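Q: Give me the 3D complex with NAP.
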Amino acid sequence: MKILITGSNGLVGNAIHKLLTNSDHEHINSSWSLGGIASHVIDITDNESIEKVVDEFRPDAIINSAAMANVDNCEVERDKCWKVNVDGVKNLVNTCDNYGIHLVHISTDYIFDGKKVGGIYTEDDEPSPQGFYAESKLAGEKVILSSSVSSSILRTILVYGMHQRHNIVTFVKEKLEKGEKVNLVSDQVRMPTYVDDLARACISAAEKKAKGIFNISGDKHMSYLDIGNTIAEYFSLDKSLINHVKTSDLNQAAKRPLKTGFDLSKSISTLDYSATPFIDSLEFIFL
Ligand SMILES: NC(=O)c1ccc[n+]([C@@H]2O[C@H](COP(=O)([O-])OP(=O)(O)OC[C@H]3O[C@@H](n4cnc5c(N)ncnc54)[C@H](OP(=O)(O)O)[C@@H]3O)[C@@H](O)[C@H]2O)c1
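A: Here is the predicted complex, encoded as structure tokens.
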């Protein structure tokens, strides 16, 4: 297959690139400007830049990992957030429609309010976004679902892995290694997702042209505090540097769902998905 990645310099795009490099598929990496691993310029808010690359490369699938993904920035810079997360998706949908391309798009657990008893959401649960990022991501999903484009929407949760920009795992490990204190909440619970698992699922969705919404996450609920404690234990770092805080202690611009997790049965049966246990992923990330 020929696969085009948008947002390839990000955490998820980078992981997809690495897996595709060791596959039989041909792929190209793009971002809104050259640099990093991006060999082509696609700003998803600029239709012309999409069509130019698509017309030349003629992909079978586009994996869209481009987004404005900083939740608090989205709360403040609303126009920019909407332009990328909604209008950008509209542009990709139009191009996929024009060229008969399968679209794989990444969405988020934040479309839920986190109040469901047990905290395990299925693909069919009713969304209830709490902040502007969440609203924009849900609107992006709706743009795709209301089109006739062949598409897979992969919803995911708190993604971590090796990348030049910090995520929860690399951030906590580095802080503790430097002997610095770190504040972690115990009342926000997620099923953290190893980025390579998500990347594999994106590729599988492209290969199968799997239609619909799919849940992709780890298989275990963990609070941010649990994540920090597990990292400290695994790498024999000083746990006493971890400050246990509550969400209400943090002055975050965007409201977050308190507890989210996913029922993975549809992805396991349709995409052959399997979630790497958190402890095992720590070994792979820091090999
Ligand atoms: N990370 C998580 O915990 C998480 C959780 C749930 C869902 N998701 C979703 O997963 C997807 C990937 O997120 P990520 O964590 O990989 O985010 P990321 O690291 O911020 O990557 C997003 C990439 O998109 C690029 N980008 C921004 N605007 C663009 C535009 N107009 N055109 C082309 N590229 C553009 C960014 O460029 P710059 O590098 O220059 O900023 C960045 O490289 C997003 O849809 C996000 O909503 C992520």
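A quick observation: The longest helix spans residues 78-99.
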